[in-house]
Design a protein that fits this description.
By secondary structure, this protein is mainly beta. It contains one helix and six strands; from the N terminus they run ββββββα. Strands 1, 2, 3, 4, 5 and 6 form a six-stranded antiparallel beta sheet that branches. β3 (27-39) and β4 form a beta hairpin. The longest helix has 10 residues, at 83-92.
């Protein structure tokens, strides 16, 4: 799945918190250190270390807490362009026409 960076890289000191609101399908990539992730309405908490990631599976508030110094990036899935955007980009896209150099 293609993704785009929403926020990052984010450096968090030990005990620092980051809040994500309504982040369904966003991904937290941990580059350095470790973080504790708590999602609203989820009975479980999640520990992710450097090199690991976590995809948010619900909306609501998510709290990411640094366990020691941590560095992370938050990314969201790239959405398919709407039919309207595809229509307009098709109208203004360069047409492929053979040139005399191609003949």
């Amino acid at each position: 799945m293609d993704e785009y960076i929403v926020q990052g890289p984010v450096a968090l000191q030990q005990g620092a918190h980051m809040r994500i609101v309504d982040g369904l399908e966003q991904v937290i990539y941990v580059w350095e250190g470790a973080v504790w992730i708590t999602q609203e309405g989820d009975r479980e908490d999640y520990l992710r270390r450097a090199g690991e990631w976590f995809r948010l599976d619900r909306n609501g508030t998510t709290v990411v807490c640094a366990i020691g110094k941590a560095s992370l990036t938050v990314a969201a899935p790239a959405r398919e362009p709407s039919a309207w955007n595809r229509f307009w980009s098709g109208l203004f896209a360069a047409s492929a026409r053979p040139t005399s150099a191609a003949l």
